[in-house]
Amino acid sequence: MFNKDFIFGASTASYQIEGSIDKDGKTKSIWDTYTSVKCNILDNSDGTMVCDSYIKYKDDVKILKELGVKAYRFSIAWTRVIDENNNPNQLGLDYYINLCKELIKNDIKPFITLYHWDMPQWLEDKGGFLNDDISDYFEHYADVVTKALGEYATDYITINEPQVIFTLGHVYCVHAPATKFTDKEMLQAIHNLLKCHGKAVKVIRKNVKNSTVGFAPCSRPAVPTDKNNELLVKKCYDKYFECKREIEFPNRVAIYSDPVFLGDYPKEYYEEFKGDIPNITKEDLELISQPVDYIYQNYYSGNYYSLEENNNLSMEDFCFGYPEGNIDWLQVVPETLYYGPKFLYERYKKPIIISENGFCNNDVISLDGKVHDPERTDYIQRYLLELERISKEIEVKGYFVWSLFDNFEWNAGLRKRFGLVYIDYRNGNRIKKDSFFEYQKIIKNGGI
Ligand code: GAL
């Protein structure tokens, strides 16, 4: 069981659920551009309709209410609330104001993500995260949002998963905007993104009374196969926070979280990236390390490790007979929610909130008209058990399941389903899956 005030929530993101991509003055985002190129998306789908949440937001809130969550994490589309002249768009803001009001009426706390990957195309055309002024644009955007929503929403996440923005968008180029960065550009873009975070934190503190703030990276912890082997556990910790120059370096933890929580990049960063490091001033580091309230983290998978005879780590390529996620990167490693929070807490010493966790399944509507997804329930139960276990040792404040709905799973399109609610894309019907009712029970009972 979790504490009485533990926050059970559900999460979504603007481009993945809203639809209505050209209504009420919304401008194009990099995802509108990316999806318009044939073959970029597995099934050639795009965000035109998806869950139709721009229209059906009141139904969304009804569903959340029935689920019993205390909080709903959703993101704002920058492209709805700021126009191409960098001025506020009231029609777009009204949508989020109405959504917040509806949530509050139903005793559900809004948790707002400012940036969940849908950069305005006009800003991308000016260089996106490589533009040295991007943090000023982001500061202005954060200012507009929090002036409009501050009286309804106190909890903010500045940026979702910088790791994925850069690794999939600028190393492998399989996400928008799909432009390759050199290492030097990457380090500059990462630094600019962290400045966006810092400036937004300042603005949120200024505009919102009793605010809480954080950012939501993702990670795959190194999970020891033997919890009693101290050397192994220590090596897994070190592995998790490694900062090496390797192809996936933008996918790691410490390169973002050390500056935010500890006030500087890791020592290893300065050694590994010599020659490519951007100009990092003392003022930048002070800005980036504005105090935040929580360590948010999105967790889906981890990697098991054991020790070889010479005491080197060796990755174990097995998953103990758990169900397998229907997407290549989703191996089921429940202890992710034990060791991930444990290691983060040891290093950064702040309360933890799991901002995403969920399972991708090949869901079908059965002949009885229902969607039976025992694998997803199994996943949520196993992961939450591990989170309960660590919550006896460190401060864990909440858990947001990904996702409320099946939705647009980026380059995998509509094929890959993560929802507690099935979306029938042929007619827009929403069918609560078995896991919806199981999660409802968990919330009612305060744990597993
Ligand atoms: C995260 C992302 C979400 C969602 C989820 C499942 O990386 O923040 O938008 O796509 O993964 O893949």
Helices and strands, with pairings:
Elements lengths: L6 E5 L2 H4 L12 H6 L17 H15 L3 E5 L2 H4 L8 H16 L3 E7 L5 H4 L9 H16 L5 E6 L1 H10 L11 H25 L4 E5 L5 E3 L5 H11 L13 H9 L4 H6 L9 H7 L6 E4 L4 E5 L5 E4 L19 H13 L3 E5 L17 H18 L4 E7 L18 E4 L4 E4 L1 H12 L3
Parallel strand pairs: 1-2, 1-11, 2-3, 3-4, 4-5, 6-8, 7-10, 10-11
Antiparallel strand pairs: 8-9, 12-13
Helix pairs in contact: 3-5, 7-9, 9-13, 14-15, 15-16
Q: Which architecture would the CATH scheme give at its second level?
A: Alpha-Beta Barrel
Please give the largest β-sheet.
Answer: 8 strands, parallel
For the secondary structure, the number of strands is 13
Q: How many H/I helices?
A: 16
**Amino-to-carboxy terminus distance:** 6 Å
Q: Helix share of residues?
A: 25-40%
Short description:
The protein has helices at about 15, 30-35, 55-65, 80, 90-105, 120-125, 135-150, 160-170, 185-205, 230-240, 255-260, 265-270, 280-290, 335-350, 375-390, 435-445; strands spanning about 5-10, 70-75, 110-115, 155-160, 210-215, 220-225, 295-300, 305, 315, 350-355, 395-400, 420-425, 430.
